[in-house]
Design brief:
Oligomer: single chain
Shape: globular
Structural class: mainly alpha
CATH architecture of the largest domain: Alpha Horseshoe
Number of strands: 0
Number of helices: 26
CATH class of the largest domain: Mainly Alpha
CATH superfamily of the largest domain: Tetratricopeptide repeat domain
Distance between the termini: 56 Å
Radius of gyration: 26 Å
Helix content: 55-70%
Strand content: under 5%
Number of domains: 3
């Protein structure tokens, strides 16, 4: 794209120069747009697009989407991309240059990607590749975005091929070290392969950027979190992830990168035997569109470890009933947890149906994989019944999960969750408040002596001898939520 693409109808050469600088800033051959250029585009606002010709309008809206995206307003960038950006690019197609279209679709891909709309991001990146043609810089940018979209959506084989194509275009020009989408794609594929050495090399090269932008700093922190997870250094993983959502770049952090960090932080907490803290962290998080990160799945996993199958089913109900476009990468795992929950509750037919659907979907997409961190005895029962009920399909499962294989059982939690009766759960919730036993007794309409007797019985069941120890155990494991004075 040239300045003229944005200049014919704007009447403002300063705005035209700013548009060009912002839209081109994602190219490996161009410097990052100066803050002054970003501010000029933001100050113009969407109303400035009204009198512009289609070609200039498409360039300006793409610049505005990019300016919003890199000013901590990712959701606004997404809304603009959907409502105005995509139609503007379509309308400009007859007159706009191919590189303008490639740049515009690359910006849209970035907006979708950083908001967790991975399928839409991949689609836009594909358009950007088509328009880039033989222009190596534009093609590299588009390939990097496609690789990130695919890798983060679990399409690792496809992403690996796209990463390879992008690195071939680099051809020793050091583009790859500075392209955050490509670095993130490569980090994710290596994370899935437990390739710590490769991740360290990538992070080392990425860390040499002279003046990293906020999104680049966040990507480095997310990558560092993944690296600590591979090393099983969960305390440092928690610290790195927490730095994403509460650190200096928190206000500039795009939603999807924040969700990635929180999901890793909660997983690290479970590994450390603190599912109560993990549940508190994800309890009120909203999954991005299409559940490309599924907090319902995480909550269900935590509830299963706490021996709360009904809560696991409740947590994933929205995935079944309210999310028809649920990520197919994650959906088999949702169904698997529902199968386990039904099995624990004695719902054999429902368990078999959910397990069958889970394994069929997994086999059709990326192949059936051993489940880690879930009760192996329950999984074995489900698998044996599937083999008996579906002998024609059984070889597709046993090929990927040999029956004589050894797989890790659930993570060691450092405690044994104690199932509480409904009455015990109510009492436990009140004990975690700051009310006295007498005040709790009044709330529950029983005498203080009766309450003391019930509390001592609960202490014995929890394996503790005092209210303080009981509260510590209850809050750490997430068995109950506090009520009353601490609500």
């Amino acid at each position: 794209m040239t300045v003229d693409d944005a200049d014919n109808s704007t009447g403002s050469r300063s705005l035209a120069h700013a548009v060009t600088a912002v839209v081109r800033s994602g190219l490996p051959t161009r410097p990052r747009a100066p803050r002054a250029a970003v501010d000029v585009v933001l100050a113009a606002g969407i109303d400035a697009a009204g009198p512009m010709a289609p070609r200039a309008r498409a360039a300006f809206i793409a610049a505005l989407v990019s300016a919003l995206l890199h000013s901590g307003r990712a959701h606004g960038a997404l809304q603009l991309a959907e409502r105005r950006g995509m139609p503007a690019l379509t309308g400009a197609a007859p007159d706009a240059s191919a590189v303008l279209q490639s740049s515009g679709y690359a910006v849209m891909a970035e907006a979708f990607l950083l908001n967790g709309r991975l399928a839409d991001a991949a689609s836009c990146a594909g358009f950007a590749i088509d328009y880039a043609g033989d222009d190596e810089a534009h093609r590299f940018r588009a390939l990097s975005l496609l690789a990130a979209s695919q890798a983060l959506n679990g399409e690792l084989a496809s992403a690996a091929g796209v990463i390879g194509s992008a690195r071939e275009l680099d051809n020793g020009r050091s583009w790859s070290d500075a392209a955050w989408p490509l670095v993130m794609a490569d980090l994710q594929t290596r994370f899935r392969r437990n390739d710590a050495e490769g991740m360290e090399r990538l992070l080392d090269g990425f860390g040499r950027l002279a003046r990293p932008a906020a999104v680049e700093r966040v990507v480095a922190k997310v990558g560092t979190t993944w690296l600590h997870m591979v090393h099983e250094d969960y305390q440092r993983a928690i610290a790195a992830a927490d730095g994403v959502v509460h650190g200096i770049d928190a206000k500039m952090c795009p939603p999807f990168l924040a969700d990635l960090a929180v999901s890793m932080e909660s997983l690290a907490m479970v590994h450390l035997g603190d599912p109560g803290a993990a549940l508190k962290l994800v309890e009120h998080r909203t999954s991005p569109p299409g559940h490309t990160i599924c907090f319902e799945l995480q909550r269900a996993s935590i509830h299963l470890q706490l021996k709360q199958p009904r809560k696991a089913l409740a947590a994933t109900e929205a995935c079944i009933s309210d999310c028809p476009d649920h990520s197919l990468r994650i959906f088999p795992s949702v169904l698997l947890r529902r199968a386990i929950a039904h099995e624990l509750l004695g719902h054999e037919a429902l368990a078999d149906a959910a397990f069958s659907r889970s394994t069929h979907l997994a086999a059709e997409s990326a192949g059936v994989r051993p489940a880690v961190g879930l009760p192996l005895d329950v999984l074995e029962r489900l698998l044996m019944r599937l083999i008996a009920n579906e002998p024609a399909f059984a070889p597709a499962v046993t090929r990927d999960i040999p029956l004589d294989g050894e797989y890790p059982d659930r993570e060691t939690l450092g405690f044994d969750p104690v199932p509480l009766t409904e009455r015990e759960g109510v009492l436990a919730g009140w004990l975690t408040s700051d009310l006295t036993l007498g005040a709790i007794a009044a709330e529950l309409c029983v005498s203080t002596n009766t309450l003391k007797t019930q509390a001592k019985s609960l202490y014995r069941k929890l394996g503790v001898s005092s209210r303080k120890d009981a509260v510590e155990r209850l809050e750490r494991t997430g068995v109950v939520r506090p009520v009353g004075g601490n609500a």
